[in-house]
């Protein structure tokens, strides 16, 4: 069974979501759902056949964990559906470079900036509130 068919069932999707947060036993998973332990075991078997979960025997208990590699086909499918950005990072870098170049070419020269600063200083000194009689 492939991952898409396995994830078609809402209970199996819930089990995958639960196992994404850590390992669990069948008893633990059955306690979180309103279905029997054998039903949970059947869902886990389907998920195991799809490569989405892995079982590990620890003592007398069987612990299930999510197999992230099994989700790769689903992740690839969703990535293909994602809308590509209208502008790539390279295009934005080129625009940034062009804006900086244009600003630098149209910026006032340093002598004009100095003249403007001097004019501002003259206006400040000529303000009536600062005049001394």
Concise summary:
The protein has seven helices and three strands, in the order ααβααββααα.
Structure commentary:
This protein is mainly alpha-helical. The chain is 58% helix and 11% strand. The chain is built from 7 helices and 3 strands, in the order ααβααββααα. Strands 1-3-2 form a 3-stranded antiparallel sheet. Helix 2 packs across helix 4. The protein is elongated. The model has no long low-confidence stretch (mean pLDDT 86).
How helical, in percent, are the residues?
Answer: 55-70%
Helices and strands, in order, run as HHEHHEEHHH
Number of strands: 3
Q: Give the averaged pLDDT, no decimals.
A: 86
Structural class: mainly alpha
Rg estimate, integer Å: 34 Å
Tell me the span between the first and last alpha carbons. Answer: 97 Å
By DSSP (H or I, 4+ residues per run), the number of helices equals 7
- Kindly estimate the percentage of residues that lie in beta strands according to DSSP: 5-15%
Task: Point out poorly predicted stretches.
Answer: none
Q: Per the principal axes of the C-alpha atoms, what is the gross shape?
A: elongated
Major sheet details? 3 strands, antiparallel
Task: Tell me the strand order in the biggest sheet.
Answer: 1-3-2
């Amino acid at each position: 069974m492939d991952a898409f068919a396995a994830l078609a069932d809402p209970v199996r999707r819930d089990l995958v979501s639960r196992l994404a947060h850590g390992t669990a036993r069948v008893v633990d998973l059955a306690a979180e759902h309103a279905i029997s332990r054998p039903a949970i075991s059947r869902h886990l078997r389907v998920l195991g056949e799809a490569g989405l979960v892995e079982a590990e025997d620890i003592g007398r208990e069987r612990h299930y964990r999510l197999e992230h590699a099994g989700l790769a086909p689903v992740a690839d499918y969703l990535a293909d559906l994602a809308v590509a950005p209208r502008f790539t990072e390279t295009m934005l870098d080129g625009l940034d470079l062009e804006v900086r170049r244009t600003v630098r070419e149209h910026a006032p020269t340093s002598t004009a900036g100095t003249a403007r600063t001097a004019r501002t200083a003259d206006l400040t000194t000529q303000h009536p509130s600062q005049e001394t009689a």
